[in-house]
Design a protein that fits this description.
With 340 residues, this protein is α+β, with helices and mostly antiparallel strands. Helices cover 36% and strands 12% of the residues.
């Protein structure tokens, strides 16, 4: 296929934009980033809705979609990641979000239920969010759900909680990041009404999708293992103005400040623009943020840390006796027009 597919062209899964995404990602050299920046951004945000809406991690599909992949192979791979089938209601909702169509009654009812829930953040929490760009949702999921997720991470990377010698011989890990995206034990957080309510309070809409992000396993430092990062950084494109966005991390075990806890620079979202303007021309902000004092955020199993994407953030060296285990999770508006 030499011509870019139209948005409405579908394959066996019946998902709009999917054939277009396949063509664009397997023809990167042909595309050569055609079109103006606004058009490329428009395409990109719709693709993010499509990818996460189909239960796929961004890194997963970026690695999978090599130039030789066929569209049929992509659809088969998506089905495999979803256990062999995708709920038709999920596809209907995704297609409506991507085309601006109306949602079905079941989807609308879910939004209404979330909207009717009592707030999980009070006025003080929201003031903290506004001032510092970070807020913590306590007990976002249960202790049993946390334990199941920890077990899933341990099994995936081949470690044993009671054998420290296994903590440093990990499979499917990149540094402290664990390449586990799909597992039943990770679903309770993605489907939690309480977590959905938290994000809806910050975004101002209930029409949200969960991301399919990976997990993390940060063992204590020792001879032969020095904390590899990530150090303070941003996940946003620093060459553009950073708009509103929410990121999240769920502690799956009790985590002390010195236990490799999540760290950030609270309040930096209010001073970022001026700080960027103060840098030398063509300077990389990541090089200059290193060494900035950061605050380590302790928490208990089940606590969800939410932060503004303009905050420099990262993990920290684990100088305690136990590993830190986390699930990365955020939610974002399913209709791109509500996000950008």
């Amino acid at each position: 296929m030499s011509q870019q597919p139209q948005i409405e062209e579908t394959g066996s899964l019946g998902v709009v934009r999917l054939k277009r995404l396949w063509w664009r990602w397997t023809h990167r050299g042909v595309l050569a980033e055609r079109g103006d920046a606004a058009a490329r951004q428009h395409e990109w945000v719709h693709e993010m809705v499509l990818i996460h809406g189909l239960g796929i991690g961004l890194e997963q599909i970026a690695r999978y979609l090599t130039p030789e992949r066929t569209f049929d192979e992509l659809e088969a791979w998506i089905l495999e990641l979803n256990g062999g089938s995708i709920d038709p209601a999920c596809i209907a909702r995704l297609n409506a979000a991507l085309t601006g169509g109306a949602y079905d009654a079941q989807t609308q009812r879910r939004f209404e239920e979330i909207a009717a829930m009592p707030a999980v953040f009070d006025a003080s929490d929201l003031e903290t969010w506004d001032e510092h760009g970070i807020v913590v949702l306590r007990d976002a999921i249960s202790a049993q759900q946390c334990a199941a997720a920890v077990d899933a991470v341990h099994e995936f990377i081949g470690v044993r909680a009671d054998d420290a010698s296994t903590w440093y011989q990990r499979n499917h890990a990149q540094g402290i990041m664990v390449q586990l995206f799909q597992h039943p034990a990770l679903e309770p957080a993605r489907r939690s009404a309480r977590i959905h309510k938290a994000f809806s309070q910050l975004w101002g809409t209930t029409d949200l999708l969960p991301t399919f992000d990976r997990c993390g396993f940060n063992p204590p430092e020792q001879a032969g293992f020095i904390f590899p990062g990530p150090h303070l950084h941003w996940d946003a494109d620093m060459t553009k103005p950073i708009g509103f966005g929410v990121q999240g991390l769920l502690y799956l075990g009790d985590t002390a400040a010195e236990q490799g806890a999540f760290s950030c620079v609270p309040g930096f979202h209010k001073t970022l623009d001026g700080w960027l303007q103060s840098l030398p021309p063509r300077a990389d902000p990541h090089d200059h943020i290193r060494g900035t004092p950061a605050k380590a955020i302790a928490g208990n199993a089940g606590d969800l840390i939410l932060w503004h994407q303009a905050l420099p953030h990262g993990s920290s060296p684990n100088r305690a006796a136990r590993p830190r285990v986390v699930q990365y999770l955020t939610m974002f508006p399913a209709r791109p027009s509500e996000r950008f």
